[in-house]
Amino acid sequence: MLLHEIDVPSQIEHRNTLGRGWNEWGPSDKVDCVITNPPFGGYEDDGAGSDYPADLRTRETADMFMALIIKKLLKENGRAAVVLPDGFLFGEGTKATLKRLLLRDCKLHTIVRLPKGVFAPYTTIKTNLLFFTKCGVVDDGTEHFHTETIWFYEHPYPKGYRSYSKTKPIRFEEFQVEQAWWGDEANDFADREATEFAWKLDFKSLREQAETAAKPHWQRAEQLTNEAAALDGKMRDLRGRLSGTPETQKRAKLELQIAELREQAESLRLQARDAQAAGDRLYWPIFNLDLKNPNAPEEESHDPDILLEKYKKLLGEIEETQNQLKSELGAALAHHFVAEDT
User: Fold this and answer.
1) What pLDDT score does 73 carry?
2) Less Cβ crowding at N or C end of the chain, within 10 Å?
3) 225, 269 contact by CB (below 8 A)
4) Apex CA 157: angle with CA 151 and CA 163, to 5°?
């Protein structure tokens, strides 16, 4: 705080925020603004986070902080700026669930992508600045996503830099270009323009397309699950009859019917899982926010493996072109000789 010119810091507590139980956070703990660089790459002790909602349960520190910020700490219209590693942007599982929660309950309007070395020499992990605003709950019977457009800004190295270091750290003055480009959230950043460093993602269209593609698979999964549940009901009825049937022959017949129904139900559940997975494969990739700058020129790589792969691809293209030429020449010659014979 002193380094940021707050001469008399107050209301500062030295404690482990993540050591506090999920249900111990109340309305009085909510704030208007959160600015944080949560520790990432580490894990809390066993037991920490065990009372988090099941779909958000994790021991990874950065993920736990994000869950707290979104669900417990921000007031409605509260703003947040959070430093997170690339792993959060492309991560699946709990990370994908967190991003879905973030994009649904908040307006994630800007991601500033920082280059390598910002935290050197302590870590070489690439990091990002996420800026978002907590939005109100829309209770209209449907699931409402507040994030529709996400702006990305790729922060460039200063001229002459190839990386940052302890002796050549990132400087606040470098962000003047972002500040000039930033615009105003009040008009939904209408003045922002795409540049060689800035681009935007139409997340709303991407999500709607993914949901449309995935929906038939999910509906099929639900239908198959319901059919399996109906067979379970028939099996329960047969088991009830079985307990009251002393005759061996009738019992054997009922047991055979139960076994057949069980096999059918298991088959339906397997098909339902496959259908659900097919829908998920179409839907969940939209939460991969690890996007490259589409406006940046392609960097020439000198990695031997990459160069070898490009060489193989080029040889394949040359061979394909040669085969096409041979085919066309063969067809032309055949036509020529046919014309001479006639």
Assistant:
1) 95
2) C
3) yes
4) 125
Q: How far apart (Å, rounded) are the C-alpha atoms in residues 151 and 198? A: 7
What's the whole-model pTM score?
0.80
The torsion of the CA quartet 202, 208, 209, 210, rounded to 10 degrees, works out to 100
Domain range 2-193, its CATH number among 3.40.50.150, 1.10.10.10, 3.30.300.20, 3.60.15.10: 3.40.50.150
Buried b (16+ CB within 10 A) or exposed e, 187-211: eebeebeeeebbbbbebeeebeebe
112 has which bridge partners? 129, 153
Positions of E strands within the chain: 31-36, 74-85, 106-113, 127-134, 149-154, 198-202
Helix, strand, coil tally for the chain in percent (to 5)? 50, 15, 35
What does the block give as tokens for 222? Answer: 């639900």
> pLDDT per residue over 183-235, tens digit each?
999 999 999 999 999 999 999 999 999 999 999 999 999 999 999 999 999 99
Q: How far is it, in rounded angstroms, from Cα 37 to Cα 56?
A: 20
